[in-house]
Design a protein that fits this description.
The protein is 13% helix and 42% strand. By secondary structure, the chain is mostly beta strands. The chain has one domain. A five-stranded antiparallel sheet has the order 1-2-3-4-5, with helices on one face. Strand 2 and strand 3 form a beta hairpin.
Length: 78
């Protein structure tokens, strides 16, 4: 969870690390969700602070939470 200076919740982040793909999701509101898929590094686990930049994402979507998550969950697993 990410909180502002007053302790109010600003966003919730999730990371799912798999053997091939690492998926990350940041939800800041119903209409503000960002999801990305990166290739998992073989050298170790990726923590949220170490996620590669958006420009290196294999897949990326921004928009309404339900739309973004639906599309993420429909991505094929290798």
């Amino acid at each position: 969870m990410i909180r502002d200076a007053y302790g109010q919740l600003e966003a919730v982040t999730y990371v799912r690390v798999g053997p091939v793909w690492t998926d990350s999701v940041a939800i800041a509101g119903e209409a503000q969700t960002l999801a990305m898929r990166h290739r998992t590094r073989e050298t170790g686990l990726i923590v949220p602070a170490e996620l590669p930049s958006e420009s290196r994402a294999m897949w990326q979507r921004h928009g309404r939470c339900e739309d973004v998550l639906a599309e993420l969950f429909e991505l094929p697993d290798p």
